[in-house]
């Protein structure tokens, strides 16, 4: 068994780690596999964890699990030597396209340095000693010393499917390792491999199912949620890493503590990996000249597609989840940047504000382009395509030239109106308008103009949570604050 080091407590004997020879299959990195797309299971199919009571993770959960899950858990314990001494599997908490995630108790927690344990750090408060000890106190004290009791420590065990390519597994673990000290990013505690089975050990993070809380989020709740997500994105992007799969199931959020962590770096990559020059990185003049000289530019608008197209097909990384892919990914930009994660975060915000999940529900990339074009209109969408050398033509009658603004979309999807002349509607209030203004910055079709995570954290919308803090001086908000809040 090979494992990634977990730092033992000083002067403690670490358990024996067998290091495999260097020829071993964990030594990878030049896997030739070219992944241009990862179709992930739809959100609806993903098994998501629900809020559990923090204490009793008992046999109740185990016995309630379906037989095949119990069998899989037993197999995992059998397959990895020494596993049962280290972890007690409790239940399955997630199942995706590439892994199954279990909740487990960390049985050897006390043997290691556990810098990852934020809860423990916060719980370790100084307790004053009793002023004078009675005999009973002393007895209690000694009994406590004989049997040290602490709350069980939980971890999430991510069993990566053996069908995943070694390069992909290595990539995920390596990026998690690089990002281990980043705020709001779930750190990697350790990882094991035995033959072809790799498991990653992460701190267990209590979270609720997005579908259970997003409809009840106030604007401040939404700002707190996004502040946490953008804090994670800021550090990930500062490392020039693209997450590529920002969506609610990959951002574990606990509405009770208002904390969130970003997980699942299975599709993440370093910016510039396999990149080839794309027109979007050229000046507008160069882009215009290239568009005019192109076959499409010279032939003018055409319906259909050429029968004998001799041009090589365009290849670009399209990894991600449908409904969350940025327009540049759909247009197969060959020089994608960290901004694609900002678009996906924008889709989460749009979902919360519109109270619709999933907001986009396309079967493929062309349908996804149609959905986006319906909102933004053909004029902006054509311009967005040209940025990456793509000509967009459509005869779909429901796609208008100018599209709709996001404020309208949100009003419609929440069955509200701005009231128009009769003033009977429920228009957006000042904070909601601020949220929509922020949303427009996240969902800019042009990635170079889209807000960055660092800029986002400076935006007034993401500063809303600070309003409740001492020292914040309320600004003179205008009359719009009198409107009804829903
Ligand atoms: N550290 C964790 N704490 C609690 N639950 C987790 C943790 N990591 C993952 N999960 C649960 O498992 C699910 C799948 O994990 P993820 O890393 O996204 O795997 P996949 O690549 O299969 O999507 C998540 O949506 C979440 O519900
Ligand atoms: Mg996932």
Automatic annotation (TrEMBL):
Pfam families: Pkinase (PF00069)
GO terms for MF: ATP binding; protein serine/threonine kinase activity
The UniProt record lists the keyword Aminoacyl-tRNA synthetase: no
Protein kinase domain boundaries: 87-462
SUPFAM superfamilies hit by this protein: Protein kinase-like (PK-like)
Swiss-Prot/TrEMBL GO biological process terms: mitotic DNA damage checkpoint signaling
EC number, as in UniProt: 2.7.11.1
Chain intervals with Basic and acidic residues compositional bias: 32-42
Any single GO CC term annotated in Swiss-Prot or TrEMBL for this entry: nucleus
InterPro entries recorded: Kinase-like_dom_sf, Prot_kinase_dom, Ser/Thr_kinase_AS
Superkingdom of origin organism: Eukaryota
Biased composition (Acidic residues): 22-31
Keywords: ATP-binding, Kinase, Nucleotide-binding, Serine/threonine-protein kinase, Transferase
Keyword match Transmembrane: no
Region feature Disordered, mapped onto this chain: 1-72, 291-319
Protein name in the entry: non-specific serine/threonine protein kinase
Natural source organism: Cephalotrichum gorgonifer
């Amino acid at each position: 068994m090979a494992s990634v080091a977990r730092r033992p407590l000083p002067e403690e004997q670490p358990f024996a780690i067998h290091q495999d020879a260097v020829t071993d299959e964990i030594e990878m990195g030049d896997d030739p596999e070219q992944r241009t797309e990862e179709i992930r299971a739809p959100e609806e199919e993903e098994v998501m964890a629900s809020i559990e009571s923090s204490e009793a993770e008992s046999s109740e959960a185990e016995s309630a699990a379906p037989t095949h899950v119990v069998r899989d858990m037993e197999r995992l314990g059998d397959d990895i030597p020494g596993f049962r001494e280290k972890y007690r599997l409790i239940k399955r908490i997630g199942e995706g396209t590439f892994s199954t995630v279990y909740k487990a108790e960390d049985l050897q927690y006390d043997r290691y340095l556990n810098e990852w344990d934020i809860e423990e750090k916060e719980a370790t408060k100084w307790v004053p000693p009793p002023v004078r000890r009675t005999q009973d106190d002393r007895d209690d004290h000694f009994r406590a010393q004989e049997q040290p009791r602490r709350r069980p420590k939980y971890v999430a065990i991510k069993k990566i499917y053996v069908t995943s390519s070694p390069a992909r597994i290595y990539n995920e673990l390596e990026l998690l390792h690089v990002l281990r000290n980043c705020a709001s990013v779930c750190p990697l505690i350790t990882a094991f491999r035995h033959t072809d089975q790799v498991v990653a050990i992460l701190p267990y993070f209590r979270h609720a199912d997005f579908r259970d809380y997003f409809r009840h989020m106030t604007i401040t709740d939404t700002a707190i949620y996004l502040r946490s997500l953008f804090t994670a994105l800021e550090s990930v992007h500062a490392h020039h890493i693209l997450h590529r799969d920002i969506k609610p199931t990959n951002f574990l959020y606990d509405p009770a503590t208002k904390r969130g962590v970003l997980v699942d770096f299975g599709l993440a990559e370093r910016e510039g990996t396999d990149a080839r020059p794309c027109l979007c990185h050229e000046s507008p003049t160069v882009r215009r000249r290239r568009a005019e000289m192109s076959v499409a530019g010279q032939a003018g608008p055409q319906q259909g597609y050429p029968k004998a197209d001799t041009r090589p097909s365009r290849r670009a990384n399209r990894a991600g989840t449908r409904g969350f892919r940025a327009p540049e990914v759909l247009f197969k930009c060959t020089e994608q940047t960290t901004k694609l994660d900002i678009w996906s975060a924008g889709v989460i915000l749009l979902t919360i504000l519109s109270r619709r999940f999933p907001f986009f529900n396309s079967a493929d990339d062309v349908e996804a382009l149609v959905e986006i074009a319906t909102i933004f209109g053909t004029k902006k969408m054509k311009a967005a395509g040209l940025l990456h050398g793509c000509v967009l033509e459509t005869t779909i009658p429901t796609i208008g030239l100018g599209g709709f603004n996001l404020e309208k979309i949100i009003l419609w999807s929440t069955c509200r109106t701005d009231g128009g002349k009769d003033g009977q509607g429920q228009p957006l209030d000042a904070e909601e308008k601020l949220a929509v203004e922020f949303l427009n910055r996240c969902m800019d079709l042009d990635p170079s103009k889209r807000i960055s995570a660092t800029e986002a954290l400076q935006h007034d919308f993401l500063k809303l949570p600070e309003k409740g803090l001492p020292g914040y001086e309320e600004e003179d908000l205008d009359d719009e604050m009198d409107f009804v809040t829903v």
